[in-house]
Amino acid sequence: MTPTAPAVRCDGVVQIYKTREVEVVALRDIDLVVEDGESVALLGPSGAGKTTLLWLLAGLLRPSAGRLWLGGAEVGRLGPRALDRLRAAQIGVVLQNPARNLVPYASAAQNVAFAQRAVRRRSRQRTDDLLERVGLAPLRDRPAGLLSGGEQQRLAVAVALANRPRLLLADEPTSQLDAGSAAAVVELIKEMGPTSVVVTHDPGVGEAMSRTVTIRDGRIGAEGRDGEDFVVIGREGAVQLPPEYHGLLPPGSMARVEPVRDGVILRRAEP
Ligand code: ADP
Ligand code: MG
Predict the structure, then answer these.
(1) What pLDDT score does 88 carry?
(2) Helix 124-133 vs helix 108-117: angle between axes, to the nearest 10 degrees?
(3) Averages of pLDDT over each 10 residues, the chain, 271 residues
(4) I want to staple 92 with a disulfide (CB 3.0 to 4.6 A). Which of 104, 126, 165, 268 is the partner?
(5) What is the pLDDT of residue 66?
(6) Which of 52, 61, 200 to mutate to test the pocket of ligand 1 (most atoms within 8 A of CB)?
(7) Roughly what angle, to the nearest 10 degrees, separates helices 149-161 and 108-117?
(8) 50 pocket-lining for ligand 1 (C-beta < 6 Å)
(9) Rounded Cα distance, 154 and 84, in Å
């Protein structure tokens, strides 16, 4: 990654899953820039496309259309080995299913150490520090497969941070944690993941991040900064009204657009 490039840039990214019978458009026209140092909470209902976007940012999927840069490197122009190297050196990932991040028969400490070996930065001290930070120091020698779901989730975060990634991507990393452990994990991510994108349903996690991005129906519908929420005007001028206003302007209803000095007002056209 080049130091001046943003950590992530998506330009018109589209992701289509093709199964035998149907094509699912999981993401359409995603424009997104994440600057170095930002922490982004990715919000949105189930099926909106959050996991798909995270997989794209992790280099685990290549976009069906559009362009995606991780650091200065355009994913579409990297061969498989160059992409693997970039991922191992620069990106830490916590997948949605905690067990999938871990080697089940290896101990908690070995799982963290393996992740460091991938970039030849192994250090016993760092392993112990990370396990301590996620509250797993007493369980360091237990096989990961024998940990509870919440313990596996905390271990997965430690593993993702083990190689000091420039970009940390985490998919609902606190879904199985109580409030106290969730707060500790968020603290750790903010401290050690200098740039992070975290999918979450937890409003507490969203508040801890510098920015929120909300996806609905495969599009970025809203963004929040410093506690204020904004809708995002899409490529063709499309706006997703927040669901709390669907009562005033139900989907499918007609509205008048009234220009004013600094924007427009939408008013329902009475039938
Ligand atoms: P979220 O994480 O926001 O719940 P996903 O990214 O998992 O959403 O899914 C977005 C859409 O893509 C959903 O309609 C989902 O059913 C579909 N989808 C996800 N993965 C696949 C796949 N491997 N094959 C086909 N469809 C998929
Ligand atoms: Mg998901």
Answers:
(1) 86
(2) 130
(3) 79 94 94 94 95 95 95 90 90 92 96 79 83 95 96 95 92 92 90 89 87 94 87 86 90 92 92 70
(4) 165
(5) 96
(6) 52
(7) 20
(8) yes
(9) 24
Instruction: Locate the ligand 1 atom nearest the alpha carbon of residue 45 and give its number.
Output: 3
- The Å distance, Cα 55 to ligand 2 centre, comes to 10
Say if residue 36 is exposed, middle or buried (CB neighbours under 10 Å; 0-12, 13-18, 19+): middle
Q: Per-domain residue ranges for the chain?
A: 8-240, 247-271
Fold of 8-240: Rossmann fold (3.40.50)
The Cα–Cα gap between 234 and 228 comes to: 19
pLDDT, position 39: 94
Decide: 56 in ligand 1 pocket, CB within 6 A: no
What confidence score (pLDDT) does residue 40 get? 95
Residue corresponding to tokens 């919000």: 43
Query: Which residue(s) pair with 224 in the sheet?
Result: 212, 229
Measured from the CB, is residue 54 less than 6 Å from ligand 1?
no
Binding site membership of 233 for ligand 1 (Cβ less than 6 Å): no
